[in-house]
Write a structure and sequence with these properties.
Elements: E1 8-9, H1 12-17, H2 31-47, E2 50-53, H3 57-65, H4 74-85, E3 92-95, E4 99-100, E5 103-104, H5 121-127, E6 136-138, H6 143-153, E7 158-160, H7 163-174
Parallel strand pairs: 1-6, 2-3, 6-7
Antiparallel strand pairs: 4-5
Helix pairs in contact: 2-4, 6-7
Length: 176
């Protein structure tokens, strides 16, 4: 898998990685997508290339949906790794973002992003002021498929680990 040296991980990436050891009978996420998420998590840990916010909003979201024990899944191992290394600049870069109402000062102004999910704005707010504009790795949140072009227009990349899945789900939701 070809991933950048540094990136942000949407919470659905480690959550999807956990499906390898914690299958969900109601999930339609294909095995290659689960494996791509495991690979992405492993690469971030090995390359020590995670970017998060300095105020721990992303960390808190991870903590609500993953196990701090670091097991049984790879996503849980990622959670423990983030907990253990988030203050070490050799492992994680921390970016200061400024909350303004239900958005962020660093969130880009673009008509195509006006309806961007409020709970996901922190990821965009973190990457936008970063000098390298690291991509945001995305697995299964198909709403991002609809915003990818507007994000690209402001210099932000949503890197889809499961592009066919995201595109199909987006089309299904939009009725196209």
């Amino acid at each position: 898998m070809s991933l950048p040296k540094i990136c942000l991980l949407d919470t659905n990436v480690p959550k999807t990685a956990n499906l390898a050891t914690q299958p969900d009978p109601g999930s339609d996420i294909p095995d290659p997508c689960v494996l791509a998420c495991i690979e992405a998590v492993e690469l971030v840990i090995k390359k020590r290339g995670l970017v998060i916010d300095a105020g721990d909003e992303i960390f808190d979201e991870y903590r609500q949906q993953l196990s701090m024990k670091g097991q049984p899944g790879m996503g849980d191992a990622f959670m423990k790794w983030v907990n253990d290394h988030r203050y070490n600049p050799e492992y994680c870069e921390r970016v200061v973002i400024t909350k303004v109402g239900d958005s962020y000062e660093e969130f880009p102004s673009h008509d195509g992003l006006n309806d961007f999910d409020r709970s996901d704005r922190k990821f965009v707010a973190v990457t936008n002021p970063h000098p390298d504009k690291p991509p945001i790795l995305q697995a299964t949140d198909s709403k991002w498929w609809g915003w990818k072009d507007a994000l690209a227009e402001v210099g932000i990349t949503a890197h889809f680990l499961c592009p066919e899945y995201a595109e199909d789900k987006y089309a299904e939701k939009m009725g196209t």
